[in-house]
Design brief:
The protein is an alpha+beta fold. The protein contains three helices and four strands. Strand 2 and strand 3 form a beta hairpin.
Length: 93
């Protein structure tokens, strides 16, 4: 997403706002905790309001959706960037 697109999107959302982000990776025993561990320091002192997980039909992959109250668009972007930069996360939405 370009900086211009991020700015336009941030103007549509009023912060603070409850947002969610989904990370998908291999279904390992620690993937969910890894995702939460990447997000938690960025949203602190807030905590996730809800966490949903779902296995792929074959069980090889796991998606973790974390819902949280974002203070501003920059904070949401930091969460997205942290997930995208981690090798365990194969895809984000």
């Amino acid at each position: 997403m370009s900086d211009k697109q991020r700015q336009e999107l941030s103007e549509l959302i009023k912060y603070p706002a409850v947002r969610s982000i989904k990370a998908m990776g291999l279904n390992t025993t620690d993937f969910e905790f890894s995702v939460i561990g990447l997000i938690s320091p960025i949203i602190a002192p807030q905590k996730p309001t809800k966490i949903d997980t779902r296995e792929s039909s074959g069980g090889k992959y796991l998606s973790v959706t974390v819902h949280f109250k974002a203070s501003n668009a920059a904070q949401y972007d930091l969460v997205y960037d942290a997930l995208r930069d981690d090798a365990r996360v194969l895809f984000t939405l």
